[in-house]
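Whiteboard transcription, Tuesday session. T.W. wrote the structure tokens on the left side:
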């Protein structure tokens, strides 16, 4: 007999329509689901309304009762059923994610692919994503607020703003330095920004996009980073900033870079897109310079699908950064809010009429680079797992270095080196084929790909050789010899948290075997 049969339509238990019920033992129940002749639900104290914690806890201790043991009451009102339906929906989503993660195929050497990068996502991310979706707020909202606050806390920054990619983070960071609000320190068109030639294009493109001139400095082969010894010779009277990335998570020499920057009064932007959690002398990368940036693309330390962040200790820089992110407006109200400044119709700025709505007052030629709350919700769940991810990246990197050395592969490969005091939160494992190696880099990477080992180059290599660069204004401070070597001889493979020790071992053996150094063990 179905519980619902014979009841008036309004009292029928439809799937996912929670109803009040009284158990024959006298307890008040909320019934949630009908399974055959049984009803699933939980007992609750009859005196108080259901809050979200009650719903959560109630669902955790859900019981089944024969339908005939319950006398059905009224369906829950909307505000009361909301936390309950959310908790039920999240629970189902978690179950789905748990099953999906168990379905992962075991690693078969030579057959399974080992991607160079990847994401580790599951129950917490799906749960948050569902929760944000049910809000239907869609644009940046409560999850975005929490995410930005957490990033700011992590870096000891006054503020962090989330943006829709690491590239956007770099664009916002550098655009910020062009604001007239910075007075004589604002970057003017034609000013020079020192950067590394070898790396990712969108570390450099914001320089061009702002009408500034990148001046390229060569890199250090051992770390893959900008060579600090070459920075000072690249400085001219027009030099205003240094903007470079911590290559594959390996900290740049921020001690030296900051010494030079202070001496010459230069801004410093640290692209930490590949270096979330890297430290130098115990200090987080991104906190040495004026502004730091992050990427949350799936290959990165944490992901929200697409996303990035800009952070700084300087409140003025963050106010300007937010303006560039949010259409260039002067107003800093979050989405859905008005009159945060308390003077919405009282401003007199530029040539605008007195009291022109601050919401529509623009102080910069800005963009809209905000994220959605669903992205932020995923990012927030990932942030809680960051420490574990970083530990795994470090352990995998160390294990791979050890295995490659054990198999003698360092005879033909330059393995990554770090500065004294550096503790990288690695993005990938960089190797540079030595000149006397028995094969070319391309032959080696092609072989590794055939063997299921995903490889990547050091992004754009020497950027000045990229097709689009032929027409871009730029300076070259000294020969880009090592950038060329990185372009021609370097590649990297994965050490992301999804990689297991059997895969590390297989990668090291396969590389060493191709180079002819593997032991026959
Ligand atoms: C150093 C560096 N900067 C910036 C970016 C751009 O990040 P996104 O892909 O999120 O735009 C990347 C991308 O991998 C990167 O490696």
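and on the right, the sequence the group agreed on:
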């Amino acid at each position: 007999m179905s519980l619902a049969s014979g009841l008036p339509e309004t009292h029928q238990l439809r799937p996912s329509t929670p109803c009040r019920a009284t158990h024959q033992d006298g307890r008040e129940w909320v019934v949630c689901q009908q399974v055959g002749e049984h009803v699933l639900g939980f007992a609750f104290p009859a005196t108080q309304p259901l809050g979200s914690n009650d719903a959560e806890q109630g669902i955790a201790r859900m019981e089944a009762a024969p339908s005939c043991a319950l006398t059905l009451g009224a369906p829950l009102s909307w505000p009361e059923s909301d936390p309950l339906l959310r908790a039920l929906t999240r629970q189902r989503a978690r179950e789905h994610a748990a099953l999906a993660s168990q379905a992962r195929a075991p690693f078969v050497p030579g057959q399974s692919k080992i991607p160079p990068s990847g994401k580790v996502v599951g129950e917490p991310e799906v749960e948050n994503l569902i929760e944000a979706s049910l809000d239907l707020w869609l644009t940046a909202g409560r999850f975005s607020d929490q995410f930005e606050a957490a990033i700011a806390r992590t870096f000891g920054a006054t503020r962090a703003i989330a943006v829709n990619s690491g590239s956007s983070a770099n664009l916002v960071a550098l655009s910020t330095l062009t604001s007239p609000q910075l007075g004589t320190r604002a970057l003017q068109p034609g000013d020079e920004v020192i950067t590394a030639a070898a790396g990712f294009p969108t570390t450099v493109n914001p320089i061009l996009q702002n009408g500034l001139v990148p001046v390229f400095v060569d890199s250090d082969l051992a770390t893959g980073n900008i060579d600090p010894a070459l920075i000072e010779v690249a400085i001219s009277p027009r030099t205003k900033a240094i903007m470079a990335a911590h290559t594959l998570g390996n900290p740049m020499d921020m001690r030296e870079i900051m010494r030079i920057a202070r001496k010459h009064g230069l801004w410093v932007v640290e692209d930490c897109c590949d270096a979330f959690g890297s430290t130098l002398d115990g200090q987080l990368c991104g906190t040495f310079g004026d502004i730091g940036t992050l990427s949350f693309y799936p290959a990165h330390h944490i992901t929200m699908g697409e996303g990035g962040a800009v952070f700084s200790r300087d409140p003025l820089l963050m106010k300007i950064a937010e303006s560039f992110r949010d259409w260039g407006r002067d107003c800093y109200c979050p989405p859905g809010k008005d009159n945060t400044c308390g003077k919405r119709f009282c401003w007199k700025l530029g040539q605008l009429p007195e009291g022109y709505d601050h919401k529509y007052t623009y102080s910069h030629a800005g963009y809209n680079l905000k994220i959605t709350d669903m992205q932020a919700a995923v990012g927030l769940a990932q942030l809680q797992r960051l420490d574990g991810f970083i530990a795994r990246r470090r352990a995998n990197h160390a294990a791979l270095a050890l295995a490659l050395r054990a198999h003698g592969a360092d005879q033909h490969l330059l393995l990554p080196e770090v500065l004294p005091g550096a503790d990288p939160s690695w993005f990938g494992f960089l190797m540079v084929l030595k000149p006397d190696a028995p094969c070319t880099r391309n032959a080696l990477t092609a072989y590794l790909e055939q063997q299921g080992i995903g490889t990547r180059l050091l992004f754009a290599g020497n950027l000045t050789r990229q097709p689009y660069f032929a027409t871009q204004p730029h300076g070259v401070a000294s020969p880009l010899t090592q950038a060329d070597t990185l372009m021609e001889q370097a590649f990297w493979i994965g050490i992301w948290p999804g990689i297991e020790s059997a895969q590390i071992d297989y990668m090291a053996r396969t590389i060493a075997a191709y180079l002819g150094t593997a032991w026959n063990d």
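Someone added at the bottom: The two ends are 68 Å apart (CA to CA).
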